[in-house]
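queue> pop job 88
queue> type: inverse folding (structure -> sequence)
queue> payload:
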């Protein structure tokens, strides 16, 4: 498995976990816990997007 394939796998897993966190979010009882999980998934997705872009730039040069 190449680095790019691994990053894409982590990206897909992060998107699935983010979707699950949104589905389980209870707007009547907002606490720090669920929002921290959503924020961590968003940061993970952004990191994987940047990693994939960097790997694509390395392949072109």
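queue> result:
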């Amino acid at each position: 498995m190449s680095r790019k394939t691994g990053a894409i796998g982590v990206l897909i897993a992060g998107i699935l976990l983010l979707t699950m966190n949104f589905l389980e979010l209870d707007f009547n009882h907002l606490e720090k816990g669920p929002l921290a999980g959503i924020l961590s998934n968003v940061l993970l997705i952004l990191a994987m997007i940047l990693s994939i872009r960097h790997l694509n730039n390395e392949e072109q040069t």
